[in-house]
Design brief:
Blueprint lengths: L1 H9 L8 E4 L26 E5 L10 H7 L2 E2 L2 E2 L2 E4 L12 E12 L4 E4 L4 E4 L1 E11 L2 E10 L2 E2 L5 E2 L7 E5 L11 E4 L2 E3 L11 E9 L1 H28 L14
Antiparallel strand pairs: 1-2, 2-16, 3-4, 5-6, 5-16, 6-7, 6-13, 7-8, 9-10, 11-12, 14-15
Length: 254
Amino acid sequence: MAVLLILIVAVAAHDGTKAWIRSGSTVAVGTSMTHGDSPQRGVVDNGDLSQLAPVRRPGEVVPFLAARDSGNRVAGDFGDVLVFWANGDRSGRGLPVQHRAIAWVEFDPRTGLFDVPEAGLADVDRLVVPGVGARGASGYDRLTLELPLVVRASDGSWRYPLGQTSGWVTKGDASPYFDQSPAGSTSSATRPAISGLVHPSWVIGKVIRVWDGGDLDRVAAGVAVAVGLAGVVVVLGAEGFPRLPTGRNGRRPA
């Protein structure tokens, strides 16, 4: 039973309608979704089990920009959490990412600029999002983050850092950067972006429920112990105790 439970929670089992996927060995999470330092636990930690619903089109996801107005929270903050293949790479070289959808940005080929439907914006060259969460020195802080979508050079030319495409801007709750932004500067090197704009075809599903991995492990251990004890009782009952004699009708004598 314990082995069966471990197999269920360790593997993403997709049946076309829902999936179950465990963070850590199956999904890249680390501390990127944690809201606070120890002993406070994050809402999605390594070992946690997430139940996913499929995503086929942009309208099936409510990102941060839309959810904060309605007060709709998923896994501890506003907006749906997506499990997706970074840059659509299913080669097996990396794990899927479990991060929050911040906004859907739509490329408009007529203008060469972008629309942000949730914010009521059209023809913008950058995304500015106030109030996104990030783990900081004072706890879970709220920041204003900016993401360039079109860079206008001095010679009048336009450059597209994320390409001329549409997709979700995403972010780990603990991170002070969007997944689509190069993160800060470490020594002389800048960390590359985690992913481009997330296309619906890259998405495995959106999180609709999260179970704490520690609780799951304790339940699995309890089931294993209970099954083991039951097995001991059955064995003792079958082999360890003398059988009472039965009468000719098969009944035990009174």
